Amino acid sequence: MLEQTSHLVIEISSEQTKKNAEDFSKELVKIFTGGEKASDSTSKLGKPSFF
Prior knowledge:
This protein has one helix at residues 15-44. It is mostly helical. The chain is rod-shaped and about 95 Å long.
């Protein structure tokens, strides 16, 4: 009688996940910076230019 053996190997790479997290972090910084600029701009609306 023949005996048969099977193996299942699951390999998970975290490289892409790490890159995605870094890219996400960079985008959050851009959004935050853009929000700060927009906030400054709207704060200046309606104020005389000599202030």
